[in-house]
Specification:
The complex is a heterodimer of chains A (553) and B (300). Chain A is α+β, with helices and mostly antiparallel strands and 553 residues long. Chain A contains 17 helices and 19 strands. In chain A, strands 11, 12, 13, 14, 15, 16 and 17 form a seven-stranded mixed sheet that branches. Chain A has a four-stranded mixed sheet with strand order 1-10-9-8, covered by helices on one side. A four-stranded antiparallel sheet of chain A has the order 4-5-7-6, with helices on one face. Chain A is globular. Chain B has one domain (24-299): MetI-like (MetI-like fold, Orthogonal Bundle), CATH 1.10.3720.10. Chain B contains eleven helices and no strands. Chain B has helices at 2-20, 24-34, 36-58, 91-127, 129-144, 147-158, 162-188, 192-200, 204-240, 252-261, 268-295. The radius of gyration of chain B is 25 Å and the shape is globular. Classes of the chains: A alpha+beta (553), B mainly alpha (300). The A-B interface holds A 259-260, 277, 279-280, 283, 330, 333, 337-338, 400, 402, 405-406, 408-410, 412-413, 416, 423-426 and B 64-66, 68, 71, 86-89, 160, 242, 246-248, 258, 261, 264-265.
């Protein structure tokens, strides 16, 4: 009996395999379609890879680029990213600034939420108050401390009504700032400045951002979310510019393993995916591989190591230990040999190419050859009390991405060469950043991608006031003071000079060890049109289309 | 009649030998030796074990040494017999250390499963009744837990470490062992020699220790040789999913997993560890097969 049933199953499997072969044999186009979920006739469907599953859809709860990619497809702030990443009018149709640069007035267009309720200035006020409300503990609140009284409100010293935001009428919004911020339009496209649908949040509370309750004002609507599998979105017919949106349906897939995702893109299963494993770029660009898919562009991003100084017993409280570790890393081997020159070695934190900023001269040891740096590092560790008899031991957390799996063992070997025993611990990217925020790590890889094109967006991370995002728990009054001075300085040149001095102070302390300056890499099927490489790596789905389908822009 | 005594006394040793007869184990050993695959596998495995133990000391490179001038070189280049990986680490050195780790996990996890499985199964089978019901239902419940889920839970609760892997795998493997042992025990306890032991007044524990367990060895030995490769494979699955051993330590599964991501670029990083894995697993399976045929000829 059981044997017969086994045979039945076998023949069924055989038949299925035969069917799959027959389907695959029908020619290239059918082959790719067989791997994709069905797309309704006459519709345009996109299958997009995303480096992680978001923690939430709420713009007030997210921090990652993989979350921004999704939330910015379904919601929109006063400005939005154009195809080339620059800020253009979004919910606001026009704006003006006061002569002193401290008051900004935005005029909203006639737009509605996806449930038909109008988007009003009040929704923006409500969102900002919610973001800054200390009981909400929003991790990203500090990025908006430029708004009048924001820091005091976020620390519970002032009521939320004291915030420098005011709904003049339903369609006019006024911001008051602490100091002039030429980058406010860049910030206005960032999720922290998004409005939230007040009527929905008041009805559902924190559960408002779950699929089913979620209401957005962006070009797409979330339909369903299968955790760890995919998120399904369709075009929002009520979006103010819906006629210009080409794509009808999108599926977002979390792709933690970029090499596996690369195979899915190659097979036509995914239309685009970010983060190519850097050591594979040279290979993929070969003419017999997929050169037309490879997109590489300069990026405002840094990878670095954060050393957790919070614990009183932490070895990283000793400045000599941090400097020794930073010195001993052979960055050029990683960037030139392992990654074939796809990324650049970083000895400073703020990436080159950032607007109106000249980075400080890196510490003198960066010019020494590796052997001399190793000797100096060993000597510093010995001064700090570590040596062969009493080696420095700690755990280094890193993401489980293929790029990190290449880079981290190399760093580990460099540290071993100066007698440091670092054990590696890999984590999924959400867990890693959660550990960083909770300070549940000893040393960790970390990455920072600019939210807006300004050096302050990097330097504020190590400022005491940035709270959970100061991963190393670094507190240096000189550094904090220099950044405060930069913030209150209206003159651009002087402001840059304060920031440059601050970065030099920080680098001399090495609360973080810079590793590489990132590039943004994407694999995009050549049949996708409307994709523009840009320095912020923002590619909103509303601009994308598929070859052969007319675009209405 | 002193004359008859002399030859008799001379004959005594050979008579005694005849009286000892051929034990079950002698027969089994003879049958095993006749199985060429099994014997060849014993030699292969012996060689692999020795290589894994002393190889790392003889290899010119350490498994975590980065040869920064020879990164990703194919076999027989730059003094690397089997080439290097994407970080410039010698593949031969990594293979030897990976093999060692895999065998270590295989043996330790099997021993863990053996100890728990035999104790649990023999106790359940021998005492029977409600105790048997209770113990075996517990096994059924553990069986129903999805393995990967169980491992992830362990990792989240206790963090990642090497020892935990042994424990996790051993904890799952003992279930089958307990069932096999229980079945055998239930049939053994009906035998006359157990009745005799009970008549003499031996306690339950003593009967299990002195009479049941030694008689279980046949099926258990066979099962052990089949469990070790199973454990090595399980470890590979975990390493493939990124939950196994952590860099720079390696195992066969990790080597294959890393090799698979680079297979178009550096095929030797996938092919060589895979061959070694197949050879190891085949050797264990042939030995297990040979032992089963030898110990339990009815099953052939």
């Amino acid at each position: 009996m059981s044997r017969l049933r086994g045979l039945g199953l076998l023949s069924l499997a055989g038949a299925l395999a035969g069917l799959a072969l027959a389907l695959a044999g029908c020619g290239g186009d059918h082959q790719t379609k067989a791997l994709r979920p069905p797309c309704p006739a006459g519709k345009v469907c996109l299958e997009l890879g995303n480096d992680g599953d978001p923690n939430s859809l709420s713009p007030l709860k997210i921090t990652g680029t993989y979350e921004d990619r999704l939330t910015s497809d379904v919601m929109m702030g006063l400005t939005q990213s154009a195809a080339n990443g620059s800020p253009v009018a979004g919910m606001a149709s026009s704006w003006e600034t006061s002569p002193d640069g401290l008051t900004w007035t935005f005029h909203l267009r006639n737009a509605v939420w996806s449930d038909g309720v109008p988007v009003t200035a009040d929704d923006f006020v409500y969102a900002l108050r919610r973001l800054m409300d200390p009981t909400q503990a929003s991790e990203y609140a500090s990025v908006l401390y430029v708004i009048k009284n924001a820091e005091a409100v976020n620390n519970g010293k002032l009521p939320v009504t004291a915030l420098g935001i005011r709904a003049v009428d339903d369609h006019t919004l006024e911001y008051k700032l602490e100091h002039p911020a030429p980058y406010l339009l860049e910030l206005a496209k960032h999720q922290t400045m998004f409005p939230v649908p007040k009527h929905v949040v008041e009805k559902w509370g924190d559960a408002w951002s779950q699929p089913g309750h979620f209401v957005g004002n962006g070009p797409f609507n979330i339909v369903s979310w299968k955790l760890g599998d995919h998120i399904h979105a369709v075009k929002n017919p009520l979006f103010y510019d819906a006629k210009s949106v080409c794509v009808d349906e999108i599926n977002y897939y979390p792709t933690y393993d970029s090499v596996a995702a690369e195979k899915r893109v190659r097979a036509g299963e995914l239309d685009a995916n970010g983060n190519i494993a850097t050591n594979r770029i040279a290979f993929l660009r070969r003419p017999d591989q997929m050169p037309a898919y490879v997109h590489v562009h300069t990026y405002l991003g840094s990878s670095y190591f954060a050393f957790n100084e919070k614990d009183p017993d932490s070895p990283f409280r000793d400045r000599r230990v941090r400097i020794a570790l930073g010195m001993a890393i052979d960055r050029d081997f990683i960037t030139q040999v392992l990654d074939h020159g796809a990324v650049d070695s970083a000895y400073t934190f703020v990436p080159p190419g950032i607007a109106n900023y000249t980075p400080p001269t890196p510490p003198i040891w960066t010019t020494w050859p590796l052997a001399r740096r190793q000797a100096a590092a060993r000597a510093m560790l010995a001064q700090a009390g570590y040596g062969p008899g009493h080696p420095l031991k700690f755990e280094l957390t890193h993401p489980s991405s293929p790029t990190a799996l290449i880079q981290m063992p190399s760093v580990q070997a460099d540290w071993k060469a100066i007698g440091v025993q670092a054990s590696l611990k890999q984590e999924d990217v959400q867990i890693l950043f959660q550990d960083l925020r909770l300070r549940a790590f000893q040393a960790s890889w970390a990455g920072w991608i600019a939210d807006y094109d300004d050096a302050m967006n990097f330097l504020y991370l190590n400022q005491t006031s940035s709270g959970v995002q100061d991963y190393s728990d670094y507190h240096n009054p000189t550094y904090d003071h220099l950044l405060d001075q930069a913030n209150s300085e209206p003159d651009g040149k002087k402001r840059a000079e304060y920031m440059r001095q601050a970065e030099a102070v920080m680098l001399a302390d090495q609360p973080i060890a810079p590793l590489v300056f990132q590039v943004n890499t994407n694999l995009v099927n050549p049949r996708i049109t409307g994709w523009v490489d840009n320095i912020v790596d923002q590619h909103r789905s509303r601009y994308l289309c598929v070859k052969g389908v007319p675009v209405v822009h | 009649m002193t004359a008859t005594l002399a030859p008799g006394s001379r004959k005594a040793p050979s008579l005694m030998e005849a009286a000892r007869g051929r034990s079950l184990w002698d027969d089994a050993g003879r049958r095993l030796i006749r199985n060429r695959f099994a014997i060849a596998s014993v030699f292969v495995l012996g060689f692999l074990v020795i290589a894994a133990i002393i190889g790392p000391y003889l290899a010119p490179y350490s498994y975590d040494y980065l040869d920064k001038t020879h990164v990703w070189v194919p076999p027989l280049t730059g003094g690397h017999l089997l080439g290097t990986d994407s970080l410039g680490r010698d593949l031969l050195a990594r293979l030897l250390s990976g093999l060692g780790v895999s065998l270590e996990i295989g043996v330790v996890a099997t021993v863990v499963s053996l100890v728990i499985g035999i104790t649990w199964g023999a106790a359940a089978g021998y005492f029977g009744g409600w105790l048997d019901e209770l113990m075996m239902r517990f096994v059924d419940i553990l069986y129903s837990l999805p393995f990967i889920f169980f491992v992830i839970l362990l990792m989240v609760t206790f963090g990642r470490n090497f020892i935990l892997m042994f424990v996790a795998i051993g904890f799952v493997q003992w279930l089958t062992m307990a069932r096999i042992v229980r079945g055998q025990t239930m049939s053994l306890k009906q035998r006359e020699f157990i009745e005799a032991a009970r008549a003499v007044g031996l306690s339950g524990g003593a009967i299990i220790g002195r009479h049941i367990v030694p008689n279980l060895l046949g099926p258990v030995v066979v099962y052990v040789t089949l469990t070790i490769p199973d454990v090595i494979l399980t470890e590979s699955v975990l390493s493939f999913l990124g939950m196994g051993v952590q860099e720079p330590l390696t195992s066969l599964g990790t080597l294959i997993s890393n090799g698979a991501t680079e297979m178009e670029l550096a095929p030797w990083l996938l092919i060589i560890p895979s061959i070694l894995m197949v050879v190891t697993l085949m050797a264990f399976n042939f030995i297990g097969d040979g032992l089963r045929d030898a110990i339990d000829p009815k099953e052939r």
